[in-house]
Every structure is written in C-alpha cells, then in structure tokens.
Amino acid sequence: MRVCAQVETRDRLAAVAAAEGLSLRAWLDKLAEAVRTPGERAGEAERTRQVLLELSGYDPAASDPEADALLARRMAEAA
User: Fold this and answer.
1) Do 25 and 46 share a structural domain?
2) Superkingdom of the source (predicted)?
3) Is 49:62 a contact under the CB 8 Å cutoff?
4) Which pLDDT belongs to residue 25?
5) Which domain holds residue 69?
6) What is the C-alpha to C-alpha distance for residues 79 and 70, in angstroms, rounded to an integer?
C-alpha cells in the first residue's frame, strides 16, 4: 500500500527516524506497534476500570464525588 504525504511531512519523519538510527519504514513500523486504535484504547480503559472496581470498589465510569475524593486522598497518601 502506498501512503501519500506532503514532501515536508515525509522529510521531517525521515529526519526523526534517522536521528533514532532507523529507516523511515522501520520507524513507522515501531510507531504502528505503539499507537492504539480507538477500539484498543476503549478495551484497555474497560479493563482498567474493572481492575479499579475489583481492587478498590471505585468505578471511574460512575460520577461519585465522594469516591473521587477518597481515591485522590489514597493516591496522595501513597505518593
């Protein structure tokens, strides 16, 4: 598949890749591994929400100012 981009964009990305000792293709492959799709991010958010709920009883999806304050206090104490 070919991807068309402005020359300036390609040149800048190639310079970034070269500074990291990579070809543009290798740098883009590395980037593609690190970037998450919206579906992947939603899945990670849901798994994180479930872990928080199981470990602390806190559900960040629900609006609960009291629980938010409790979590903030616990995080501050842990820091």
Assistant:
1) no
2) Bacteria
3) no
4) 95
5) 40-78
6) 14
